[in-house]
Structures are given as structure tokens and as C-alpha cells.
Amino acid sequence: MSPTAPTRRPTDAAFVDEDEFDPPTDLLNLPWIDVHNHAQTLSWTDRERYALSGCEAMIMVASGYHWTPYKPVEADDVRFLWDDAVNRRAAIERNHFFEAKLGLGIHTGVRIEDPDELLDAMDDYCELDAVAAIGETGVTPSQHVSSWDVDEQRAIVQAQMELADTYELPIILHTPNRSAESKRSYRPEVQTPGYEKNTGLSTEPVIDGDNPALEAVELDVEAMRDAGINDERVVASHADQNNTAYLMEQTDCYLSFTIGHSWLIGVTAADVADAIDEYGPDRIMIDTDCANVLRTDPFALKRAIFELYRYGIDEAAIRKVVLENPRDVFGLGS
Ligand SMILES: [Zn+2]
């Protein structure tokens, strides 16, 4: 027993039982893998933050319409995004030492003219060692600038799932979130501060049921069944309270919770902890989705590791979620 502290009068220290808490020091140096980000669009310094906080590997996704300047979007515009990522990937690894692999896909957040041209080209990209996943893709309830018929979207998603199956690659789904009601809206001309997307250019929804975000995920799952790809190759990114029960109970897909922009979509480490409590850690991952077009936090995954522990998740489950599942599904890491 340590001697009584020589403080003039008792402090908090006199009431703390030191034996009661055993800090999880292994978590300080636990490597982790981010299975969905857009780090090729971040600054060098932001990528360094990944390295500084223990990132072992990442999937840099090139598919997003945020980076194609012209609308309507043509196949070549998306092809440029793929080539830009291919061009820079090796330099990023040499600069920061984590393993950086690519996800290439056709996102349906904006209608793309001649998507078949992209699908044809994608075959050859899938052969590259640098490409570790297809995506992000997935049926989206409303588009930017120009809407895209639901059946056509579903066909593009299914075709990418078929390619993923052929090349034995995982596919990353962009499952739409049901965002929380905001307390107050911003001036229309400033739109959403922290997000550079011009939300004023969103088109009327092409899915207009009670729960379009969930209906979109159900269409993705139908496409998955029709494509014949194994559920275990499908990683539903942007898991949230609206889609977790459906995906966990009706499929064997992996769910990845996006926590790099919680201010926008409302998903935090608490949602991840709840999902682990309910379903166990075997089909859960976490991603940051960090990108230059919105306020995102490269330290988010590292912070979530500590937060999960505080929320009562044991160290083995945390390791499974942030390291082992990504290694297994994407073939990453040492
Ligand atoms: Zn993304």
C-alpha cells in the first residue's frame, strides 16, 4: 500500500482505488486499417496523420462524383479519377509507409453517360495488384444534377458485383444514411457548412417510399443475390441505425461504420459499440471516409479505438473490428 499522500488535506487521490483500473496500454499501439477513405484527395499532412496514429493499411476509393468537374458526367471523367489514384498510390506508400490500396468503382450519386464504357474498362483495372476492391457503389435515392433511373442504377451496381465475383475482390457499398433531423436549417445560400457539395443541385428522389435509404440498401442486396457474389465479399459502408438490423439479420455482409464525419451523418463509436454488443464483432468494421470535400478527421479511427474501450468493448473485439476483419476481407496488412 502506498503511503498517505503528504497533501495538506485529502485530495481526489485519497478516494481512488488504483487497483480498480488497468489501462488498456496495448490499444496505444494497436495497428488499424481504414477500409474506406479518399486519402488521395487529402493533403500530405492529413495523410501523415494516418501514419502518425498507427494506420497500417487503407483502401483509397476513387469513384466519387465530387471530383468530376463537368456535369453531366461522362465515362472519361470517372476514368480520370481512377487514373489519378493509380498514378499517385505508390508515391503515397513511399511517403507514409502504410499500405495504400485502391477501390475503383462507378458511384451512382450522379448519372454517368456511357457507364458501359466504364464497366468494359474496369475489367483490366481489376487485374492490377494495386486494386483491392471495387466500389464504392450502390443504389442512391437521389442524384446530383441529373437523376438516374433506379433500374439502371441497380444494373450498374449488379454488373460491378459480377466483376467483383469474377476477380474475387470485395465490393464496398455506399449505403445511404438516414441523417438525423437538424435543429435548424442554414441559410439556403450557404447550404451545409463543412460540406462543399452544392446540395442545392440535388435532384428529386428516384426512390420515394417511407424509408428510401433502406429501400436503396434492399435493392443492393437484391443485386448481390442476382450477381451470385458471396455476402462475405460485400462490405456495406455507412452502416447506421436505419440499416444495421436488416443487414445483420437478412444477409451475411460485413458492415462498416463511417465515423470520420459524424457531424454530418450522426454515426459515432457509440453506434459501433451497440452493434458489437448486439451482434458480436465478426462482421463489423470502421472506416473514416475522409475526403477533401468535407470536414473530416484522419484521427477518427484511432479516437474510436479508445472510445470503444470506454464504452465497455473488450480489447479482442476492438482488434477484430479495426484490424483483423479488414485484413481478412481485403487481404491487407502484414
Ligand atoms: Zn466515400
From TrEMBL:
InterPro entries assigned: Metal_Hydrolase (IPR032466), TatD-like (IPR001130), UCP005295 (IPR012022)
Stored SUPFAM superfamilies: Metallo-dependent hydrolases
GO function terms (MF aspect): hydrolase activity, acting on ester bonds
UniProt keyword annotations, A-Z: Hydrolase
Keyword Membrane: no
Keyword Lipid metabolism: no
Protein source organism: Natrinema zhouii
Region (Disordered) location: 1-22, 180-209
Protein name in UniProt: TatD family hydrolase
